[in-house]
Amino acid sequence: MSSALAIIYLLSTVSFVVGLRLLGHPATANKGNRLAAGGMGLAILATLFLHELEVPPKIYLLIGGAIVLGSVLGAFMAIRVKMTKMPELVSLFNGFGGASAALIGLVEFGKGAGDTLLATTITAGVVIGSLTFSGSLIAWGKLDGRIKSTVFIPQRNIVNNLVLLATIVLAVMLVTGSLQDPAWIYVLVTAGLLYGILFVLPIGGADMPVVISLLNSMTGIAAAITGVLYSNKLMLIGGILVGSAGLILTFAMCRAMNRTLAAVIFGAFGEEAVAGGEGRTVGGTVRKTTASDAAILLNYARDVVIVPGYGLAVAQAQHVIHELEQLLTERGVVIRYAIHPVAGRMPGHMNVLLAESQVDYGLLVEMDDINPHFAQTDVVLVVGANDVVNPAAHNDPASPIYGMPILEVENAKNIIVNKRSMNVGYAGIDNELFYNTKTAMLFGDAKAALTDLVAELKKL
Amino acid sequence: MSNWIDLFSNNQDLIFVLVLAIFLGIELIKNIPAVLHTPLMSGANALSGVVVVGAILVMLNADPNNYLILGLGFVAVVLGIVNVVGGFAVTGRMLNMFKKSGK
Q: How is domain A291-459 classified at the CATH fold level?
């Protein structure tokens, strides 16, 4: 490697580290993103022009074409995407990174013969890359509704673990040279792809934030492995940073649901509920309310907390909820948003949605900070959230979500719940909050219901 | 076993960098406020597109008459660049939406 190239790689590595650091603070995040992007651009250009190889123009043309094509595609997708579709897009991009790593491993496979380190890294890159690719595509399909949310495969755990075991055995045999025929690498890719599909397919919607961060982390690891293959420290460090960041987020999401990573991967919510008993079915009567009654309640409240959930994203109600918030603020109501760490389908999903509709992020309060406050809250408005406000997490040991930290909205003086119907949430369990005497149900699509609510408020 | 010890001593540099990078990553990311979880993930996702450097190396080293490798390399570069450009662009778009009153 020429020293000019090494210096640029060093600069790029520093830009990644500093960029990630800046991304961690709201005021500097944008700067961090641009810095890391700049470092990446520099590294790509340097790789192209500062090598010491004889490269025919034809190859340059091909690389140039690939870069232009990829840039146009990537930019187009990034500009076109709706903010409600963000988790889908992140999964898709992530899958592409994984596929890229798998393809590199496939091409370089021949190099590994006789060198344990190279063979190990190449094989690991192929496996991780291909399973991240197929897993991310499945995640994308599930989030997008192309694949129905939960697919149960009979004897899923046995099948999955057999495929995983077969993949590992195959990889080890390739590394140790027990399998000489290079065609086996294609079998390995297939096994990796298959495991990715089987691994994500049965995972329920509420567990999606965990899966997306985990897949993100694995793409980073695949990139780092490819870095070892080329003794390229830029790729190694860049990949590992992503890998650790993804793992931290993964564990943060798991903690927020009081579930272990193993439970997310090996047991879908619905199945656990069957295994552990149904949980309590809550009986009782539900009190319905109308938009005009709800508007009066909100209008004369002093302190209101809004709890947004995935239903808000599905209905694309982020703009109308902001309108409601502004209207109430003008009338002197103190209003805030309570954000559960796993509300939505990716880490921080609600924050991005509300930011899109220009909600001041100072109004978004995290779970631990808002919980002590509910006792003084006049009205809580729950929009499209269910499991994250289910008191069964506190008081029903038989419930599959028992122990999960929740937003303790049942402590508020009045609760309005907007839901499309009485259907159960992703965890497949009933919610006693809906039968609480303080609770009024405002049925309907979030956007339609909130639009009516705003119209009624304007009349008052 | 001696195989693995050789592996370690022959690649000490990389292994040290790897282990230190893990700790660095953890230090950098912990205590990030929830409001930034999505942009952070999407920014990190863009960073994992660094794998495109490897894809470019594949192409640069390829035999110009081996169309299988050129084809696979081409696809790898396209996918990697989509990850990089799309990832950073979408992160920027998200971050531009965050605002705080009084600013």
A: Rossmann fold (3.40.50)
